[in-house]
Amino acid sequence: DFASRRPTTIISGGTGWVSTPPSGGGVVEPAFIVGQRYTLNGVVGVGTFIAPGAGTIVAHPVWLEAGSYDQIGVYTAATGVSTWQLGVYHHVSGVLSPGALLIQCGALDMSTVSGERDIVSAITVPSTGVWWLAVHCTASTSSPNPYGFTGSSGATSQPPWKQALATSGADGRKVVGVRAAGVGSGAMPDPFPTPALTDIMPIVNVRRA
User: Fold this and answer.
1) pTM of this prediction?
2) CA separation for the pair 9, 26 (Å, rounded)
3) Residue 14: its pLDDT value, please?
């Protein structure tokens, strides 16, 4: 039964199942489930203002288990004439930002249909830890209406690390996303350009294979 197989690995890694909780407590991390989607935890809203403009790349961190993933996607409530490339970046721990490109997964024409928009892509995550899921807008004449982090007071995200960068405002919400403009319409930049912090960005997910 589930009670006798409690997930016991802490956030720093591992995927085992044993009969007792981790000594000293900590955050439990069940093994990832095939077919389930994984992303950054937080309060999510919807709005055209979340969509990046042409030539802009945005990214947010996510904790991923090493292994294979077969889809990467976003969710939009309405279409827009915009093209988004999706990809995964390595984490640079010293500056809490993305670094080298792991994989560019393909592009989405955001003008066709609303709902879950996925790219089928063979993504191999080589190690358990923090990775960055990115959206690069290569062209846009009208914005879709995606779900994502809105930058609103009280609408905070939960970073996959102990410390938290905060805004200077009175609400002090966490800021974990990054943004860079002027990156053009070609391939996703490698490495990630010098970023600015942001708490407005689409939410991106990957599916465990």
Assistant:
1) 0.84
2) 9
3) 42
